[in-house]
Amino acid sequence: MKISIITATYHSEATIEACMDSVLGQGYSDLEYLILDGGSKDGTMARIQQCVDPRVRVISEPDQGIYDALNKGIAMATGEVIGFVHSDDFLASDDCLANMLHLFESEKVDGVYGDLHYVDAQETARVVRNWKSKPFHRALLRRGWMPAHPTLFLKKEVYDKHGVFNLEFKIAADYDMMLRIFKDDTLKFAYLPQVVTKMRLGGVSNGSLKSIIRKTREDYKAMKYNQLSNPLYTICAKNLSKIPQFFTKG
Questions:
Q1: Which distant-in-sequence residues (6+ apart) come within 8 Å of 6 by Cβ?
Q2: Angstrom distance (rounded) from CA 17 to CA 51
Q3: Domains of the chain: residue spans and CATH
Q4: CA–CA separation, 66 and 59 (whole Å)
Q5: How far apart are CA 81 and CA 109, in angstroms?
Q6: Glycosyltransferase 2-like domain location, by residue (predicted)?
């Protein structure tokens, strides 16, 4: 089963090598790695171009932000399964992809997700927040539960059916996308109880109080778009559910 991994970059000189190493160091051979750079002016492209692995395809051109870049990657992807590894993130171990793809094949599912660690931007061995998921059932949607989006890998046919990221959302397009997908009761998902992704703190949606407030507003908008009943309850439950993540460091 072929997998396409997509990384969107912009001024990611400090982290892109670790990101790429974590993808290309996986113990899985049938891999396509797509890197979509938004026209970086720093040393990002120089670091990317040091890699001569034939599995890597690179495009560098202006875009409308990370979701636009990811949409381009989805359109380019030729794998049966698509996953994302953002340029500030890295895969937690070299068996992540093999273990996820085993579930795709053995459980005959449309999507697989796992756990995520937020780590200190400088000391990446230090876990700051532990996002531990659970097996999915649709009643969880109303409680504001979702898996960590960077750990969610989906069959390409899911995007063919449900479309790509809605660029009206600047921070919460991933949540809007997941609501669309997880509401579909014809799709089947599997949970891999393993840390799949390590995310450096300081991303767009968690970098400041202002961005957290904006993310909450966009989450609410996504709930309305996707016709969740009682979105005020869901937005409160969603935010409260994150509190234990700061006390269970994994």
A1: 34, 35, 36, 70, 73, 74, 77, 82, 83, 84, 85
A2: 9
A3: 3-246 (3.90.550.10)
A4: 14
A5: 11
A6: 4-140
Packing angle between helix 209-225 and helix 173-182, nearest 10 degrees?
30
Distances (CA, A) of 130 to 77, 105, 194, 196, 243: 30, 28, 11, 12, 10
Residue 242: count other Cβ atoms within 10 Å of its Cβ.
12
Is the pTM of the predicted complex or chain greater than 0.85?
yes
pLDDT in tens, 36-78: 999 999 999 999 999 999 999 999 999 999 999 999 999 999 9
User: For 97-117, what is the mean pLDDT?
Assistant: 97
Instruction: Answer with the residue of higher pLDDT: 79 or 242.
Output: 79
- Taking Cα atoms as reference points, which of 33, 222, 198 lies closest to residue 117? 198
Q: What is the dihedral of CA 241, 83, 166, 246, to 10 degrees?
A: 20
Q: Name the amino acid, one letter, at 193.
A: P
3-state secondary structure of 198: strand
32 pLDDT more than 90 = yes
Task: Indicate if the pLDDT at residue 130 is higher than 70.
Answer: yes
